Amino acid sequence: MRWIIFRCIKCGAPLYAKESQKSKKCSICNKTTSLKIAYKIQYVDDIREAVGIIKQMKIPSDKRKEIIEQIPRPKEKRPLIDEIMSIIKEMSEKSEKGITRSEIKERLIDFGLSEVKFNEILDFLVENGHIYEKNIGYFKSI
Ligand SMILES: [Zn+2]
Questions:
Q1: Which of 17, 37, 49, 75 is 20 to 30 A from 117 via CA?
Q2: How many whole angstroms separate alpha carbon 19 and alpha carbon 17?
């Protein structure tokens, strides 16, 4: 079912209604707005989304900014390459001989890297001198 978000024809308050509805009475000024002529803002598929949008629209724009700023931001994600590098470093410090490609790959399984991407990253780390091939097939970090 689709929902329409529109403005009250009299007071401009944001309202929502089922798409199939003909009209809706404004909860603020009691004026009935015909959906045919209403100023439509947006269509959404979910009632919760409609309610959320209305809620946001009712907040004055200066307050809206304040509220958005109060939302805690997720900790900045470290770039993937840094994260992978530190994992490889940690692994290689534990192994005198070095670690194999498949050992590294196994550790990085949670990253969901494709074979191509994995090889790309490993090549990048080797080319840029972050890791080196100590013995054939065995990698160590610098
Ligand atoms: Zn109204």
A1: 75
A2: 6
